[in-house]
Amino acid sequence: MPKINENFLKLEKNYLFINIAKKVNSFLKKNPDAPLIRMGIGDVTLPIAPVCVEAMKKGAEEMGVKETFKGYEDSGTGYDFLKKAIAGYYKKFGVSLELDEIRVNDGAKSDCGNIVDIFDDNNIVLITDPAYPVYVDSNKMSGRTIIYADSNEANGFAAMPDSSVHADLIYLCSPNNPTGSAYTRAQLKEWIDYAKANEAIIIYDAAYEAFITDPEVPHSIYEVNGAKECAIEMCSLSKTAGFTGMRCGYTVVPSALHVTTSNGEDVSIAQLWGRRQGSKFNGVSYPVQCAAAAVFTEEGLKQIHENIAYYQENAAIIAKTMDDLGIQYTGGKNSPYIWLKCPKGMSSWDFFDYLLEKIAVVGTPGEGFGKNGKGWFRLTAFGDREKTIEAMERVKKLLSE
Ligand code: MLT
Question: Does 21 sit in the ligand 1 pocket, CB within 6 Å?
């Protein structure tokens, strides 16, 4: 009989959003006509930008013609036309990337979860809490020691490094999922200095960078000096361009990022990650890469920013409701998430049930993202405008009673 990886038994029984879906489905069974409004999972609702659809159609047509048909893409790391487009996008932030530092993938979640493969299980992993569950789950699956940096009310849900604590791998997400807080350049510099002092590597999740409005908040960690020697950056087109159903993202592993092995050998992290991906990943489909490249054209950026502006307006509507109700929150400015303190001292799951049962509005209990999420709650701005307004009217009425 094979032995299983018993670390899986130490995980929460279900992934957070599966638990939420189960609760919602059982509510809908009892109340089939309930006018449900979903503000839980961070999934987009606006359609793909027309330029991307056109590019994808063209790509699909090329696949149906012998002369332009494509099988495997040789490198498996993404077509040069897409990597060039991504590098061009980074140039706008003053970051210069070589094409072989960029690897195209099927979204940030896979790489966030898979990157653990190239690091030893004895590493000390530091994760800010609350956090996107993938960082914690993927490290628990390999039995790693995780230490947490508290993001809480006192620090505006933006944990900073503690120089008395050592870590080898550090997960940062900015703008943050779930709290919506975002690190400034100065704060990221502190994390980079901490990483260097500990010879650690930062795994930086920039999936929400397109929502940044504050000029003090960098879109890429590489805007900050020293990051190329200590950080891997992951980004996704899911939130940037509504690609949750298309699956495309990219990971940047700078060629300056090296480690020394136990016997003194110098190893490039890009080489190691490339080796891992070469064995376990066969790349992203050609039509999807065509659509992704269209995102970074002038017209593509214009079109995706119209969608982002729509979500930002939703975020402003949610934030205004919280202001009117006197409810404390973070996010909503550089982020599509509003992270609010549950009213009346309610626990986050009690507040989840309360909103669901009383007004048929679904959110995400903060506790699902870690211990510092207890008593906090996340609403997403990725919904439909009318439904967002309607949900906020219901919330206002309920909480003013
Ligand atoms: C979330 O709601 O946190 C998102 O669905 C994260 C993701 O894109 O996986």
Answer: no
CB of 240 closer than 6 angstroms to any ligand 1 atom? no
Reported as type and span, the H/E element at residue 63 is helix 50-63
Nearest one of 84, 85, 89, 82 to 104, comparing CA atoms = 82
Quick one: the chain helix, strand, coil %, rounded to 5?
Answer: 45, 15, 40
Determine contact, residues 378/26, Cβ cutoff 8 Å. Answer: no
Q: Is 177 in the pocket of ligand 1 (CB under 6 A)?
A: yes
pLDDT number for residue 63: 98
Distance 207 CA to ligand 1 centre (A): 10
CB-CB contact of 125 with 167 (8 Å): yes
How far apart (Å, rounded) are the C-alpha atoms in residues 31 and 1?
45
Pocket probe mutation, ligand 1, options 15, 16, 41, max atoms within 8 Å of Cβ: 41
Global pTM reads 0.96
Give every residue of the chain whose pLDDT is below 70, as ranges: none
CA 235 to CA 247: how far, in whole Å? 12
User: What does the mean pLDDT of the chain come to?
Assistant: 97
Of 16, 39, 43, 209, best ligand 1 pocket probe by most atoms within 8 Å of the beta carbon: 43
Q: Looking at residue 90, what is its pLDDT?
A: 98
Give the span between the Cα atoms of 292 and 289, in whole angstroms: 5
Q: Check: CB of residue 274 under 8 Å from CB of residue 77.
A: yes
- Predicted confidence at residue 14, as pLDDT, reads 81
Whether omega for the bond prior to residue 215 falls within 30 degrees of 0, making it cis, is no
- Closest-CA residue, ligand 1 atom 5, reads 42
Does residue 274 have its Cβ closer than 6 Å to ligand 1? no
Question: Which atom of ligand 1 is found nearest the CA of 43?
Answer: 5
Per-residue pLDDT reduced to its tens digit, 58-85: 999 999 999 999 999 988 899 999 999 9
